[in-house]
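User: I'm new to structure prediction. If I give you an amino acid sequence, what do you actually give back? Let's try with this one:
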Amino acid sequence: MGLPEQFNEAFRHHAAGRLSAAEALYRAILAADIRHAGALHGLGLMALQTGRPEIAVRLIGEALAVDAGNADHHADYGLALMQAGRTDDAIAAQGRAAGLAPREARHHFNLGRSLQSAARLDEAEACYRKAIALMPDVAAFHGNLGLVLLRRGDLAGAVDELRRGVSLAPDDAMVHASLGAALLEQGDAAAAVARFERAIQLQPDFPEAGGNLIFALNFTTADLAHQQAQRKAWNSRAPAVARLPARTPQARAKIRVGYVSKYFRHQAAAYAFAPVILYHDRKRFEVICYSDTTAEDGVTALLKDAATAWRDTTGMSDAALAGQVRADGIDILVDCVGHMQGNRLGAFAYKPAPIQVTAWGEPTGTGLAAMDYLLADPVLVPKDSRRLFAEKVADLPCFLGYWSPEELPPPGPPPALANGHVTFASFNRATKITPATVRLWAAVLHRLPTSRLLLKFTAYGGAQDRTRLAAAFSAQGIAADRIDFMDGTGRAAHFAAYRRADICLDPTPHGGGMTTLDALWMGVPVVTVMKETPSSRLAGAALSALGLEDWIAADAEDYAAKAGTLAADPQRLAEIRAGLRARMAATPVGDPEAYALAVEKAYEGMFADWLGGK
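Assistant: Good question. You get back a string of structure tokens that encode the predicted 3D arrangement of the chain. For your 614 residues, that looks like this:
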């Protein structure tokens, strides 16, 4: 058999998944011709398929040295570089593939994927649109374009593209899950839940879809029992892993705490957990951060400087991350993400630390059998509901504390004094503006016919999303000219925008967490209504910790009444605005050092229980 025949035979074995037979033939070819580009490329692909990207980079690179004009080789070289973490080199390789074969849609698609991973979203969008123009009926092309539009805040465009993807591939679980994510951001939580459920039906071993379903239920009317049942179901579907051997309890001079997150940067979640890193007691604790953060910034630098040690875990498998945690001798491992995107609950399943805690990322718990504690407070998770949780609840003075990486501007006077009318506002994400929220806020606006509503979020830069939301209020009898929209801005402009707000309205059933604390710090009162689930009690928990229970409504009618009472007295609004920041700063809610101390007290109790065998 000549080399061409041998190569064709090797290719057939490779395509059929008979890797051992293919490898033997590829190596036989190279024994006869060490520069055979096809065999080098084939072995490189096999290395890529079996999780050895660095070897793939070397072998496919050798193939390109022989045959530099082969677009497919450049494309696969780019895939290997991406898996090896060399994003810029991957983009260059995929660009060469697309340049050599500009009529091949898959090369534009692969270039788009590389650009998307580097957050170069405009360029990624252009590549996906080129791929679609060449091959309009490929579901993955529309799916990835939809995800780029979602990240850019074009919710309507994202939903359109992802619906097209579902129509082209109705049995593709990933496309259903992606559409669910876009629908959730658009505020249609019920439709999002249906998509996630369909994705799980199509692919039961799809933990991300299960996590997305759990997260989406926070925005629906699902009761706490159903939410926790879904967490239990997710835990039962999760791939079984062998827990690491239990550590023998042993006292030590300093408790070693590990924090796991992909959000060690400017992001709302980081503002919540940053105090426990920045202000940890160095005499009693060591802090190690396990970071999947790719877009590092000034906040990252602050946290790195405060931590005892820093581990870059991007690209690390869950098993490898668990092994690193065990090697570091972590006593208390803290999940800062929950079921949000980018979580590492798979690593927690190995039980690498004797004490495992979930906090800040999501207030409703994980359902993970290996998770020991949930940080909360008595208002967020009342005593009589704790039996439903997989985790034991450890109470803080308030679930959330407030920290800002920079000094924020003074609140200024309430705008009603100059405007002659009250401006209600919400700076919460569009996901939370559910039909129930629209009805709730419409009742407030009807009660005060001269009042206005200011909505600020990234999605409101898109005309379609503004039109959709204005139409929802119009259906409740609220004219579109009473609603003002603001797009996403930088932090300075964001906090300056609070000077346009007299009273913030908390959404339902998922209230505002850090958004509520932002408003309070800027002197703006927040009206909320609490229900059964923790996600509906975030604002209520913060207000209770500050002694501001008067702003917590019992029901929708009481909500409108409380908003009306606040709006009726602009002078009282001015007094509130002048004193609210100092009120917060005098409590652990607004004092980062006091908040960190409260968390560390909880850690010490957990550690003592472990030492005592509890």
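You can read the tokens as a compact description of the fold. Here is one thing that stands out. Residues 592-611 form the longest helix (20 residues).
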